[in-house]
Amino acid sequence: MADHTSGAGASVSGISHANPTGPASKERYVYGILGLLEQEENNLSRVSERTDRITITANLSTKTAAIDLLLNVVASNAVGGNTSYSASHYLTGSTFTSGTSGDSSAPNIAQAAMEAVIALKLIELDKARNPDNKTVITRCTHTLAASGGTNATFSALLEFPIEIISLPGGGSVIEGKNYLT
Question: What is the mean pLDDT of residues 15-36?
């Protein structure tokens, strides 16, 4: 389990429904952020001319979720030559908040999704934190555009391990499964 510190008041915590007083994990946080983004995409109005998208297809037999994410982002050069990417939200009416004093301070859920996938990929690449060498994130790329409104895209492709958690009052919920240390 890769640790995650959720901000106070955050929309997504990374804490398991199976252990609501237990620690938060980066895996559950990332799956939760991506799930919330897909939920918002299915329920909120899209900003015109934006081509951002997310699809999540859960396979309950294999306990995996295929996730395909594409975000329009803006690349910029900072002092010292570093390049940064920012994603503005492409849906109107989002109530997402990253909370305060946590691992994320993203101003919107699109930025939070991009940052979360990158953070998880960096942990996945660390052999000490991924001793079984599992590859869940098979694509995690920024691509500069030739021209246009936003000048870049962020795309990710994940084959995420999931758990189906039975809730005490009935029903169930799908969470990201821990696979890192």
Answer: 96
